[in-house]
Description:
By secondary structure, the protein is an all-alpha fold. The chain has one domain. The chain contains six helices and no strands. Iron/sulfur cluster binds near residues 23, 30, 52 and 74.
Amino acid sequence: MAAVDVVIHRIYTDDRWMTAAECKGLTHLFFPPPAERPQARDRREASAKAVCQSCHVNGQCREYARTHHEYGFWGGESEDERHAAGFRLIAPIGVRARNAS
Ligand code: SF4
């Protein structure tokens, strides 16, 4: 992304809500490690969901992730759930895992 694109993105994307995120320092719960097994993903995402339930910016976070087609766990919602809600991702991790087996 060019510097001008970053500036334009910052102008038109209000992401000030991120400063109130409850998940600061918990990246390991919100994004999968390489080759994560489905059972481990379920446990990790359950822990992430618990953090999101007490987060005051849950709605803004979910909307941001849906709008920007983010990967990972955002706003109490997994990639799989976001994909199923109609906010398509190219390769959501749950769909990928099911298709591989
Ligand atoms: S809703 Fe969840 S993912 Fe979003 S900022 Fe809050 S804790 Fe983080």
